[in-house]
Amino acid sequence: MTQIDIVDEGVSLDSPVLVEGFPGVGLVGKMAVDHLIATFEMDHYANVYCDTIPPVATYQEDSRELVTPVRLYVDAERDLLAIQSDVPIGPEAATEFGNCVAGWFAEADVLPVYISGLPRQTDDVPSLYGVATDDAAGDRLTDAGVDQPAEMGLISGPTGALLAHATEHDNTAVGLVVESNPQLPDPIASQVVIEGGIEPIAGISVPTEDLSARAEEIEQARQQLIQRMQQATEDSSRAQPLRMYQ
């Protein structure tokens, strides 16, 4: 089954920007999309049905309504769409999922912005790079001031499948690649994506103070975990040699 089920037919959009947020390295895309939806109080616009989406139902805070785990949200005033996923899409399902939704993206005349995390090994401010499927998308990145990649790379998973589908079918799409923590959620990388990529591409302004606060909370939790692990190591049962006549 393949279907984009619009639940709000009264919405009118003019060549909107669509931001994709699937779980990935550092949860960068998901955190960015979740932040956009919450900040702008975006409305539930459509349910996404694809054969490779895990057959689960999602319920949300303060609501009895069950919804699909992959959904589209809309902010008509800003001509902004966001695709939110509560479940990961496995590598074996990525290509079919790309085929499932990319056709609708083209028909709806949206500019998809796909987000991917690139594992980083330093604590420096994450770098952001942009890739494009055609000259039109490349021009959008240039106008937005997004740098070209510093080295050769590969985008995999559902984001890679969506970009591959757009390339194969001559559809305009943008990919944002940001350095991110490979082991922990990385709100700072999400903030970099929003401020350096989504804002100038979509022509919007997004408050990101909450993401900075979350980064501090995650770092504090990480330090506490390290301390607990060190303490556990020191207190754990162990054997050590003893020399006579010490």
From TrEMBL:
SUPFAM superfamilies referenced in this protein's UniProt entry, alphabetically: Cgl1923-like
Coiled coil: 208-235
UniProt entry keywords in alphabetical sequence: Coiled coil, Proteasome
Highest taxon of the lineage: Archaea
Transmembrane segments: none
Cellular-component GO terms for this entry: proteasome complex
Protein name (Swiss-Prot/TrEMBL): Proteasome assembly chaperone family protein
Organism (species): Halohasta litorea
